[in-house]
Each structure stands twice: as structure tokens, then as C-alpha cells.
Write a structure and sequence with these properties.
Blueprint: H1 2-56, H2 59-82, H3 90-106, H4 112-194, H5 208-257, H6 266-297, E1 304-306, H7 308-322, E2 329-332, E3 339-341, H8 343-360, E4 366-376, E5 382-383, E6 394-401, H9 435-445, E7 449-454, E8 460-467
Parallel strand pairs: 2-4
Antiparallel strand pairs: 1-3, 4-5, 4-6, 6-8, 7-8
Helix pairs in contact: 1-2, 1-3, 1-4, 2-3, 3-4, 4-5, 5-6, 6-9, 7-8, 8-9
Length: 469
């Protein structure tokens, strides 16, 4: 807006100057018109006084003549001061000389002097009229010049305004772009803070207020990152500290179950089975905490050939050993599909998805694990119509259950660490709330894509798409 303000200021100044100039011109024209009339009137009065003195020969008329001549000289002097170009004007000089000659001739108005006076009267009258015309012409010329100057001023003001408007729009657009860019960076920084992406430094350029806000967001980022690191260190420390007493408990349970200290009855054996199962569940929770810490700090991203069938069989066997009394039906794909990826990441994903399905499915429920190859179409969507072709760019993994499903309003929140949903899991041990957070983190590190389909009381389907590299 600065160029527009400058243009308006310039226009006001120019118009103000022009108004003052017009005012001065009007006053000058009025004075010149008055002086022109005064010269003509004084010329007539000089002629009248001279004739009266010539006729009556009274000294009073001669005094009047001298006064009128002095007034005429004063008017001529004022004309010269108002119009410098008239200082050497021949007409003014002639009027002044003729007036003096009339005064001299009037004192001796006999014979030839009488005839001379008549000639001088005529000459004074003609030159007064000529001077009036010249003054009128000068006034008209001044008006014409003033009109031209006014037109020039208007033209300059118009050009300045035309130049100032696009300049103002350009500066406004540039400043808006800078502000919008700064706001976009702030919005992205806030989004990253909400997404727990705290490793990128926040640096905002632009207006001072936005820079200050960027500094405060950077301070917040550092505080969140520090808190997260402290929390990770604490979690890692406490989980390692829990593993040792838990291992001792499990060893003691094994010794008692093998009746090494002495024989036990069936009721005592049942209690030991409960102890074994709950100790295994606790061990799984501790391992999940360790996995969450490990994935948060990053894992080696190397790729290798993965045997999905063997991995699925191993994980199902492990969960059956944890829950021998469970009555789940597992349907696992048997096809040997050549896929590549990070084994550690894929195993953590599949392990947590199976654990989630087991703990939220009803007794006797069915859990299905399938996989295959696919390609990505021109719309960026996976094409599952062709499978088992080693030339395809991606492979998919799907885990389905027939549990209670997930409410639509919880389908984003369930991937946040330590979130506990409305639906309660099966069993007496409460979950840690980090299983699906581990899945989400592993998906991100594996550069994969995760989709979730679920409706209340209609089961849940997790599908992942991995690059087959």
C-alpha cells in the first residue's frame, strides 16, 4: 500500500500547490484589471484637468493635474511590479511621457501649444486603450498557461496513480505471498508436532510476529522431543528391569510344574498354569514396549527375501502356546509368493496384528492371513487382479478377523501410542495400547501403505502394501 499512499500524498500536494497558484493568479488578475481601469480613468482625468486649467487658468486645476499624473505614475509602477515583462513596455513609456508633456503644454496653451494638447490628449487616450488591450492579452496568456499547468498536473497525478496502483497490488501480493508462505510453514510445523515428527527444526521467515511464533513452536518442539527421549529412556530402563524378575518367576513356575521341589496336586497345577499364562502375557507386553522403543529409534532398513508362510506359522504357534485354551481358527495362505522387505519390520507388523485379532475376537472366531503380489495403477491405487508375478512392483498382506469391529470415530485414534479404545479385549490382562502404534511406525519405516476397513460388529480388515524391492 506504500506506493498508493505516496501517490495520494503527491496528488494532494500537487493539487494544493495548484490551488494556491490559481488563487495567486486570480488575485493578480483582479489587481491588473483594476490597474488597467485605473490607467484609463486617470488618463481621462488628466485630460479633463488640463482642459479645465487651459480654459479657466486656475491653479487648483493645475494641482489636480499634478496629483492625477502622480497617481498615473504609481499605477504604472504597480503594473510593472505585477508583470515584470512590462518593465520596458513601449506603451507604458509612451503614456508616462505623454502625461508629462500634457502637464508642460497645459501651462502655456496658446497658439501651437493648444493644437499640441489636442494631439497629446488623443495620443494618451489611444495608448491607454492599447495598454488595456495588452494587459487583457497578458491576463489571457496567464490563464492559458495556468490551464496548461493544471492539465500537466492532472496528467502527472493520473500517471502516478496508474503506476502506484499496480505497484501497490504487486507489493500487496508479494507481502501476502510471504505471509501465506510463513503461515503455511507454521501450519506444516504444527501438523508435524501433532504427528510426533519432532526431529525437524522449525524455522519461520516473514513478519516479526510470525517469526516469534516460529521461535515458540521451536521451543515447544525441543521440549516435546526432550520429553519423548526421556520417556523412551525410562521405558527402556523399566522394561529391562522387569525382565529379570519376570524371568525368575517363570523359572520358578517351571521348576514347580516339573515337581522338582516336591509333588503337587491337580489344583496346584491349575494355579501354576494360570501363573504361566499370565507371566507369558506380561512377557509379551514387556516385549511390545521394547519393540516400540526400538522402532521409535529406527531400525536397519535393509531388504531381504521373506518367507511369509513360515513367518505366519511361527507366530501362530507362538500365540497358541501362550493361549492353549483358546479356540481360534486360523486360515493362513499357503502360496509361496516371492516377496522382499525388512524381515524385522514385517514380523513386528504381523505379530501385532495377529495379537490384536486374537485379543479382540470372540472365542471360536476365525482369523485369516493372506498375501500376494500386486501393482499400482495410474491412479495410485493397488491392483489385486494379477498375483504371483515376480515382475509386479508391490506385495500386499491382509489380516482379517470377525471380532466386534472398530467405531468409525476411533479408526485414527487407535494408532496413537497407549490409546485404549471403547471395545474391551478378551482376557483378564489389560493391553498396553501400543500394538497398533508399533504397526503404524513399522509401516512408515518400511515405506508401506496401511488401510483399515471395519464396521461395528462386522469384524476388522487390515491391508498393507509393501514395495517389492
Amino acid at each position: 500500500m506504500l506506493p498508493l499512499i505516496v501517490a495520494v500524498t503527491y496528488a494532494v500536494w500537487e493539487m494544493s500547490s495548484q490551488a494556491r497558484a490559481q488563487q495567486r493568479l486570480v488575485m493578480q488578475q483582479a489587481q491588473i484589471s483594476h490597474l488597467s481601469i485605473s490607467v484609463q480613468e486617470l488618463s481621462k482625468e488628466i485630460e479633463r484637468a488640463a482642459r479645465q486649467f487651459q480654459l479657466l487658468q486656475e491653479s487648483s486645476f493645475l494641482e489636480i493635474l499634478n496629483i492625477k499624473q502622480s497617481q498615473l505614475e504609481e499605477s504604472i509602477k504597480n503594473i510593472k511590479s505585477q508583470l515584470p515583462e512590462f518593465k520596458n513596455n513601449k506603451t507604458i513609456k509612451t503614456i508616462s511621457e505623454t502625461s508629462s508633456e500634457i502637464g508642460n503644454a497645459a501651462k502655456n496653451a496658446e497658439g501651437d501649444h493648444a493644437k499640441q494638447l489636442e494631439s497629446l490628449y488623443k495620443e494618451l487616450k489611444d495608448n491607454s486603450a492599447m495598454l488595456s488591450e495588452q494587459l487583457t492579452t497578458a491576463i489571457q496568456s496567464a490563464l492559458s498557461n495556468s490551464e496548461k499547468e493544471l492539465n500537466n498536473v492532472l496528467w502527472r497525478v493520473l500517471v502516478t496513480g496508474l503506476l502506484a496502483l499496480p505497484a501497490s497490488l504487486f507489493l500487496l501480493g508479494a507481502s501476502s505471498m510471504i505471509v501465506n508462505r510463513s503461515i503455511s510453514k507454521l501450519s506444516l510445523a504444527i501438523h508435524h508436532l501433532g504427528q510426533r515428527k519432532w526431529d525437524t527444526k522449525i524455522s519461520i521467515k516473514g513478519p516479526s510476529d510470525l517469526i516469534e511464533l516460529g521461535h515458540r513452536l521451536e521451543w515447544m518442539r525441543i521440549q516435546l522431543l526432550t520429553t519423548e527421549q526421556q520417556k523412551a529412556q525410562f521405558t527402556q530402563h523399566i522394561t529391562h528391569e522387569l525382565k529379570s524378575p519376570l524371568a525368575a518367576i517363570m523359572d520358578a513356575q517351571s521348576l514347580l510344574a516339573e515337581q522338582i521341589p516336591g509333588s503337587i496336586n491337580e489344583q496346584q497345577m491349575a494355579v501354576l498354569d494360570i501363573l504361566r499364562i499370565q507371566a507369558r502375557n506380561l512377557q509379551e507386553l514387556i516385549q511390545q514396549l521394547l519393540n516400540f522403543n526400538a522402532i521409535s529409534q529406527g531400525v536397519d532398513a535393509h531388504s531381504e527375501q521373506i518367507d511369509l508362510s513360515a513367518m505366519c506359522t511361527k507366530l501362530i504357534a507362538r500365540y497358541r502356546s501362550f493361549l492353549p485354551e483358546s479356540d481360534f481358527k486360523f486360515l493362513c495362505s499357503k502360496e509361496l509368493v516371492p516377496v522382499t522387505g525388512n524381515t524385522q519390520l514385517v514380523e513386528m507388523i504381523l505379530s501385532n496384528l495377529l495379537s490384536n485379532a486374537i485379543h479382540f475376537s470372540p472365542t471360536g472366531g476365525t482369523i485369516t492371513v493372506t498375501w500376494g503380489l500386486c501393482d499400482i495403477d495410474r491412479f495410485g491405487m493397488p491392483d489385486l487382479s494379477i498375483q504371483n508375478d515376480g515382475q509386479l512392483s508391490h506385495w500386499w498382506l491382509k489380516v482379517c478377523d470377525d471380532g466386534p469391529g472398530i467405531d468409525i470415530d476411533e479408526q485414527e485414534a487407535i494408532f496413537r501410542p497407549f490409546y485404549q479404545g471403547k471395545t474391551k479385549r478378551q482376557g483378564s490382562l489389560k493391553g498396553s495400547g501400543i500394538g497398533l502404534a508399533i504397526v503404524k511406525a513399522c509401516v512408515t519405516q518400511a515405506h508401506a501403505t496401511l488401510t483399515l476397513k471395519s464396521k461395528k460388529d462386522e469384524g476388522t480388515e487390515f491391508t498393507l502394501y509393501f514395495p517389492n524391492i
